[in-house]
Amino acid sequence: MVLKGRHWVMIWLLAFLVAAGSVVARQTAALRIARALNQARDSLSSLQSRRTEYERRIRQAASRSVLVPRAQALGLRLPADSEIVIQPVPDTGGP
After folding, report:
1. Number of independent structural domains in the chain
2. Can you tell me the distance from the alpha carbon of 9 to that of 25, in angstroms, rounded to the nearest whole number?
3. Region of residue 93 (left: phi > 0; alpha: psi -120 to 50; beta: else)
4. HSE (CB half, 13 Å, CA atoms) of 18?
5. pTM for this one?
6. Does residue 92 lie within any of the structural domains?
7. What is the pLDDT at residue 46?
8. Within a domain: residue 87?
9. Structural domain that includes position 52
10. What DSSP string describes the chain?
């Protein structure tokens, strides 16, 4: 069977449509991935700012200005210099 001119036109048109369809599908997938990447970056930024805020709150809560009044409210007091004993770490002789 010999292909005539109109058959070749149909074959080339079909090949073009398949190629164009694959380009459109690839671009659509790329846009979807870019959108997901932007959402992930926004989420990361939000989580980093929350982490920074929590670290600031932890430092503030662990500060001497906060802990001393709470300890005194529980009946505790600061030790005098003569009451502090520094324990030496024994040398294990290891490398």
Report:
1. 1
2. 24
3. left
4. 6
5. 0.57
6. no
7. 97
8. no
9. 5-74
10. ----HHHHHHHHHHHHHHHHHHHHHHHHHHHHHHHHHHHHHHHHHHHHHHHHHHHHHHHHHTSHHHHHHHHHHTT--PPPGGG--PPPPPP----
Alpha carbons 55 and 24: distance in angstroms, whole number: 46
Calpha distance 71→63 (Å, rounded): 12
Q: What is the mean pLDDT of each run of 10 residues along the chain (95 residues)?
A: 85 96 97 98 97 97 93 91 90 75
Question: What distance in Å separates the CA atoms of residue 49 and residue 42, rounded to the nearest whole number?
Answer: 11
Instruction: Report yes or no on 88 lying in a domain.
Output: no
Separation CA 30–CA 34 (nearest Å): 6
Distance CA 61, CA 1 (A): 88
DSSP 82: G
Please give the Cα distance from 54 to 60 (Å, whole number).
Answer: 10
**Biggest alpha carbon distance in the chain?**
109
Q: Is residue 35 part of a domain?
A: yes
- Identity of residue 70: R
What's the length of the chain? 95
